[in-house]
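Appendix B. Extra example for self-study. Work through it before the problem class; the solution is given directly after the inputs so you can check yourself.
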Amino acid sequence: MADQHAIQNTVHPSSYARNPLQRFLIATELDTRLLGMVGALAIIWIGFHILSGGLFLTPRNLWNLSVQTASVAVMVTGMVLVIVTRNIDLSVGSILGVVAMVMGVMQTDILPNQLGLGLGHPMIWVLSLAAGLLTGVAIGALQGSIIAYLRVPAFIVTLGGYLVWRGAAWWVTMGRTVAPMDPTFQLMGGGPTGSVGEFWSWVVGVIACAAIVVMLYFGRRQRLRFKFPLRPVWAEASLAIIGCSLAIAAVWVANSYPWPIRIAENYAAANGIAVPEGGLFVSHGIAIPVLIALAVGVVMTFISTRTRFGRYVFAMGGNPEAAELAGINTRWVTVKIFMLMGALCAIAAAISSARLNAATNAMGTLDELYVIAAAVIGGTSLAGGVGTIAGALLGALVMQSLQSGMVLMGLDSPLQSIVVGVVLVLAVWLDTLYRNNKH
Amino acid sequence: MLDTRTPLVEMQDISISFGGIRAVDHASIDLFPGEVVGLLGHNGAGKSTLIKILSGAYRRDAGAIRINGEDATINNPRDAKAYGIETIYQQLAVADNVDAAANLFLGREITTAIGTLDDAAMESKAREVMGRLNPNFKRFKEPVKALSGGQRQSVAIARAILFNARILIMDEPTAALGPQETTQVGDLIKQLKADGIGIFLISHDIHDVFDLADRVVVMKNGQVVGTARTSDVTKDEVLGMIILGKVPAGATPGPGALQG
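Solution. Structure tokens for the complete assembly:
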């Protein structure tokens, strides 16, 4: 790696690699660790496909997998920043629980009855979500302030929060389950109506492809501006093709999963569409919670790599003292990280409760552990300073794939826990090997 | 040799205690533009603590700081930077996991019109500054932890220069470096001095600073033993000040001088 950057200007280091694979990797500047994770995910998927007798790699299962991953995926993007700054948040599951309860009560009681909006008012979902976000941010601000200004370790503060917010969730309704949710709010949970359909899924796919191409173009222009070495054109083209193919493949899979026959028939009857021979084929398309998770992923990647806040988060993780001495207000940054985490918990709470069509006491139980595990599998180092949003999202997908695959195989749930636990330890061990090898 | 100009920095009667221990006890030092002052003393003599008060890492219990003759309020590192005070720390205070450019601009990043980080602009500027300082430095894309001690030190120094420091504090600037890199840092200090920058060199090793400094200030047990021009005293005499607190004829005694 050392001499790779020793070559001055305009000549890209890839022109010095002999092995074609190596040359491809250097030229495209892809993160090999991330590629390794994609490889592991591919092995898991194919393995489960064979072991479950061809049930795993079906549009139906992959679509469900994407929806099941959404809630943890949203939270893990925040957990990366928390862990990068050498903190931990054990309270995310409980925050999810209490926020879900608050949003549930808002939309079933406070807004329609006490404020007189009436059930089904179009503003209900917005106001409920806003109340949830506010609650989440407030909880995060409180916990973050105790950690940053009162210097209580994050482990203890959030362990306390784990108990406090779970208890608070119970107090909101004295333990009653809140249901059903507002119909518009429910869309955030996915399902046939909570998906954007064939046309809009393609629109999303096209936007994604356009974004990839535009980003590559601007990256290249920026390098030209400062006369930095450019990637070879063939490498840029391969990146564009790979990126766009992935986006199109994902949309195609989501569009291949039709509505259940009965729902499609009802829909046809209600809209006066004649049902053709063999049933009406209505695509789900991409589920709304998945779109939310993707949007969160994009925004969080932007925040962590392109803003000052993100730069400070990583600098603090690498050397807290240096960051402080560089004039960074590290305490305020810490508070902001936990506020962000709280907001993400609120979004995850909206997805979970909308999907279940209810807010329950136990909602989000054990989520903190899945979120932390996903972040760590995704390459976030507990020693601080290292982690990526994309890696963590992949980590969440790996975790959910394991669970959903084992369900398809019909494994008992105790055995599932054992497998997940072993995989977590194994993944971190492999990562340690990889990092030691690299330096 | 009375200097009638206004000192760049004047720290007067500074005291600070940690848990009942007087780390710095009524210490006064000053620094003039284009001057290099060596701050000497054993480990635990209070020199690093005194200087951390100037750089904003600690808050003094008592005493006054004047910059260019005006009272200065320094409560944190950001305040110090606003006065043009830059510090290069003993522990090579760089953020290990980000690259050289990110370290150079840490806390003062260049942003684009829409407020995002302009990494390309920062890297370009970093290449320019590092090119002047250490032309052999080429590893701009790697996290700083992959660099050698000297390379990390040049990143830290470049960081100070980049922001037009007027007062530079270097805590054990050459402790982690090899002979060749030490010479480099020495040349650099002369260059900065010629630009009118005032420099505090802090060290427990007299050999590190004696040849570079115009004046030395010796501390012992939190107090200033004495001040001397390096032209008026010998290394051995300064060593006597460090070890015994004995002030030679060529030096001005301070409150910590050996009595009798």
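Self-check: The two ends of chain A are 9 Å apart (CA to CA). If your reasoning did not lead you there, revisit section 3.
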